[in-house]
Amino acid sequence: MTETTESSDGTVHEAPRAPEWQQTACILCECNCGIEVQLEGRTLSRIRGDKAHPASEGYTCNKAMRLDHYQNGTRRLTSPLRRRDDGTYEEIGWDDAVAEIASGYQRIAGEHGGESIFYYGGGGQGNHLGGAYSGAFLKALGSRYRSSALAQEKTGEAWVDSQIYGGHTRGEFEHAEVSVFVGKNPWMSQSFPRARVVLREIAKDPERSMIVIDPVETDTAKLADFHLRVRPGTDAWCLAALAATLVQEDLTDGDFLVDHVNGSEPVLAALAAVPITDYAERSGVEEGLIRAAARRIAAADSTAVFEDLGIQQGPDSTLCSYLNKMLWILTGSFAKPGGQHMHSWMAPLMRPGRPGRTPVTGAPVIGGLTPCNVIPDEILSDHPDRFRAMIVESSNPAHSLADSERMREAFARLELLVVIDVAMTETARLADYVLPAATQFEKPEATFFNLEFPRNTFHLRHPLLEPPEGTLPEPEIWARLVRALEVVDDAVVERLRAAAEEGRSAYAHALGEATGSDPSLVRVLPFLLYETLGPTLPEGLQGAAALWGLSQRVAMTYPDAMRRAGHADGDALFDAILAGRSGVTFTLDEYEDDWSYVTHPDGRFALAIPELLEDLRGLEGRSPGYTDEQFPIVLSAGERRAYTANDIIRDPSWRKRDGDGALRVSGADAERYGLTDGGRAVITTARGSAEATVEVSDLMQPGHVSLPNGYGVDFRDESGVTVAPGVAPNALTSSDWRDPYAGTPWHKHVPARIEPAGPVAAGA
Ligand SMILES: Nc1nc2c(c(=O)[nH]1)N[C@H]1C(S)=C(S)[C@@H](COP(=O)(O)OP(=O)(O)OC[C@H]3O[C@@H](n4cnc5c(=O)[nH]c(N)nc54)[C@H](O)[C@@H]3O)O[C@H]1N2
Ligand SMILES: Nc1nc2c(c(=O)[nH]1)N[C@H]1C(S)=C(S)[C@@H](COP(=O)(O)OP(=O)(O)OC[C@H]3O[C@@H](n4cnc5c(=O)[nH]c(N)nc54)[C@H](O)[C@@H]3O)O[C@H]1N2
Ligand code: SF4
Ligand SMILES: [Mo]
Questions:
Q1: pLDDT per residue over 74-96, tens digit each?
Q2: Which residue's C-alpha comes closest to atom 4 of ligand 3?
């Protein structure tokens, strides 16, 4: 590429032109920081933070710089694949693949009902647009059950949220006087905008404080004013003692409770009865530290709390979700700067409403999601309503769900499994058909991780590259599948296309008329938008059509906040989304607006959850701990580290260090079990056994070891050799090891034993 310039004396120069910076986002965690990328051919050669991004403002962490390993690290599939009887795959054309897949699911829906078709995934950390189109195909078939990784982490909290105030909350850490992180290590795992900058600011500011509850001395804990270094799995006792201190030392915000909260009496009574000294001891935290942390929260103008996998994937997870919310509710830290907030959504990540039940095991379906841990039971059964077929989109459940071996057994039992992915994953290798998708830099993409308050942002990313021959973006894949079902009359499509050509208001009118006269069209709305509005959108953005519908929803649901953000109506918002390369603010709230998000008819919190109060009272008669002589230590299976990013990047050379994903062990345990730093250990759980490289680390407390997430995915290197460095954590986890309310796994608390790897194991 060259650029011609003319100097003042008239000479013409030819010089290489620097590639232009194009705006997109990092796809490795839910923050989706805005980035700018320079391409050299198809290589993402230079990457930097995008200062114009309204949430990340130029911030990135170390991982964004390695994104070319996602785009170019893995050999791409260039054609749909069909499994032969001998288990090998043959390439087939898209037309055949689509026809066979659509008729396969149609047959199964005909024989067993559409409800026997189960959908998993729909988007990872960077891509939710594909999943937005899946509903049309699934609903047309009558499929009802679905799940995603959210049902192995967030459903317990969602169940608590739905009862107390009816929706999701987020802390405003940028401005909170006290920030509390419970089983959350944001220095490594991020999860809120500009996390490291904000954490450093808090640590430096003598007027603000940070409380971290974590058994490990994480990078976040090192910055904390109060590190409540609990014994693994004892958070319920620690959190009960913290909340009880607020009550017993009379530190609650009585006015807030009277004005805004129902059902506080039984909660206050239960907390008044907590033996703080005893519970502090059981959790391994000094009583004085717990009391001091509670007093700091009570003295603050604002407190924001973030709970994450350390409790969500551990014992008593739902009770812990309940108890940590007491820290900001009992102190009235809601609807004010720096507090906890409910917020708008571009599209809710979970479906509201009461939990249903799964067909075979009767497990709770929270937020519309089947608990991940019961999926194998819902397949490996003779129950007439079992799941018989599955579609997996943008997820790798054969690796990321508990007990991979049992997942594989379940997948093998399915009559039809289709996987839509960019790579040949552990799950794809079990599929009857694999459909190769365009990567997230080859199509319009976006996520619905829009969780901020008062300023909530949404980013539609434009494609940087053309998809390679043979791959398709998911919206097109889903559209082809729906077309093959022949459920939408061509005349309807033609009419809507003509209206879309006329303009948005003609289109809105025609769409209203079409769905009014045939309400069944609502089921396939994303398909209709893609097929009819899509072609009128700017080049390359057909896949953004569904956002028109979501923009109208925003306009109806949050009209004032949307107008404050500068959008006159839903069409204006949609146009701003299409035009903005770095993302847009779609709602701007005022602090009082928090209350309008509470969904209870009286607009108040409902604090008493009888089952959980019973569990709180029951803590006294139980002692923490699930280890025994056979499995004396606790394994946290799946810690976030500097070079982990779920299963998104398969090429292990993306990691600058920790190539093996070390097993972190305290000095005391290393000595006790005869392990050495850099040596090899065998780790064994009730479910399985694996060999790992040891890192002796005094960040760990005795009796607690940890393995990172995202390791053990296989990768064929340039010489054709397949490698899979590190331990696949779910070779060691069991699907029955889970929360009784939400069915979420206890990945962070797996009883285990460790021993030095013998010469045989070391050579294996
Ligand atoms: N680098 C990186 N960042 C990521 C991801 C990634 O893969 N890599 N994944 C993203 C995703 S999908 C998610 S869900 C988030 C998760 O983000 P986090 O939840 O912050 O990540 P984890 O490291 O899994 O777990 C958090 C902490 O729980 C602690 N813990 C273990 N046992 C206990 C316990 O008994 N009690 C308490 N209180 N804490 C305990 C661990 O020591 C750890 O510091 O990260 C996101 N960000
Ligand atoms: N033991 C243990 N297990 C865990 C965890 C743990 O801490 N411990 N953490 C859990 C958590 S919190 C999470 S979120 C899950 C994450 O696990 P998964 O739900 O499996 O999600 P990802 O790792 O994000 O999977 C991304 C998949 O999407 C594919 N992909 C990437 N881009 C595209 C695209 O544009 N289109 C399509 N169709 N596919 C694409 C990738 O190739 C990869 O196969 O893991 C969970 N599993
Ligand atoms: S991994 Fe997360 S925090 Fe880091 S750059 Fe990517 S989106 Fe931002
Ligand atoms: Mo996650």
A1: 889 999 999 999 999 999 999 99
A2: 61
> HSE (CB half, 13 Å, CA atoms) of 600?
15
**Ligand 2 centroid to residue 119 C-alpha, Å:** 15
- Is the C-beta atom of 184 inside 6 A of ligand 2? no
Which pTM does this prediction carry? 0.97
Distance 190 CA to ligand 3 centre (A): 7
Point out which residues pair with 117 in neighbouring strands. 389
Q: Is the pLDDT of residue 761 over 80?
A: no
Taking alpha carbons only, the member of 342, 341, 362, 365 closest to residue 353 is: 365
> Phi first, then psi: what are they for 76, rounded to 5°?
-80, 145
For residue 641, which atom of ligand 1 is closest to its CA?
1
Q: Among the bound ligands, name the one nearest to the CA of residue 745.
A: 2
* Beta strand residue intervals within 205-268, DSSP E: 209-213, 226-228, 261-262
Largest Cα–Cα distance of the chain, in whole Å? 90
Check residue 19 and give its pLDDT: 84
Please report the atom of ligand 3 found closest to the CA of residue 125.
7
Domains of the chain, each with CATH number or no CATH: 19-71 (3.30.200.210), 81-144+388-447+455-588 (3.40.50.740), 155-345 (3.40.228.10), 626-763 (2.40.40.20)
Band of the pLDDT at 10, cuts 50, 70, 90? Answer: low
Q: In what order do the strands lie in the sheet with 81-83?
A: 89-91, 81-83, 433-436, 416-421, 389-393, 117-121, 146-147
**Exposure of 631 by Cβ count < 10 A (0-12 exposed, 13-18 middle, 19+ buried)?**
middle
Helix, strand, or coil here: 368? coil
364-365 vs 356-357, strand pairing mode: antiparallel
- The CA distance from 324 to 157, in Å, is 10
Amino acid occupying residue 498: A
Nearest residue (CA) to ligand 2, atom 11: 149
Six token digits for residue 353: 């409403």
Output the DSSP codes for 573-638: HHHHHHH-SS-EEEEE--GGGHHHH--STTS-EE---HHHHHHHHHGGG-------SSS-EEEEEE
Q: Is the CB of 149 under 6 A from ligand 2?
A: yes
Peptide bond into 454 cis (omega under 30): yes
State the Cα–Cα distance between residues 274 and 279, nearest whole angstrom.
Answer: 8
Q: Which residues fall within 8 angstroms of residue 477, CB to CB, at 6 or more apart?
A: 98, 130, 420, 435, 437
Q: Which amino acid type is present at position 466?
A: E
Specify burial of residue 516 (Cβ count, 10 A radius: 0-12, 13-18, 19+).
exposed
Average pLDDT of the segment spanning 530-557: 97
3-state class of 316 per DSSP?
Answer: coil
Q: Is the CB of 420 under 6 A from ligand 2?
A: yes
d(CA 81, CA 275): 61
- 546 neighbors 524 (Cβ within 8 angstroms): no
Residue 618 near residue 631, CB atoms below 8 Å = no
The answer, yes or no, to whether any atom of ligand 2 lies below 6 A from the CB of 697, is no
- Please choose, from the candidates 310, 178, 199, 158, the residue with its C-alpha nearest in 3D space to the C-alpha of residue 246: 178
Residue 711 tokens read as: 């390791």
5 vs 416, more confident: 416
**Best of 31, 57, 196, 648 for a ligand 3 pocket test (most atoms within 8 Å of beta carbon):** 31
Q: How far is the CA of 391 from the centre of ligand 2 (A)?
A: 15
Q: Report the chain's mean pLDDT, rounded to a whole number.
A: 96
Helix ranges restricted to H, 558-593: 559-564, 570-579
Q: Is the CB of 35 under 6 A from ligand 3?
A: no
What was the pLDDT predicted at 354? 81
Ligand 1 pocket, residues with Cβ under 6 angstroms? 29, 153, 182-185, 188-191, 213-216, 218, 230, 232-233, 235, 308-311, 314, 636, 638-640, 644-646, 709-710, 748-749
pLDDT band with cut points at 50, 70 and 90 for residue 478: very high
Hey, what amino acid is at 79?
Answer: S
Task: Tell how far the Cα of 213 is from the centroid of ligand 3, in angstroms.
Answer: 23
Amino acid found at 106: Q
Alpha-carbon span 133 to 472, nearest angstrom: 14
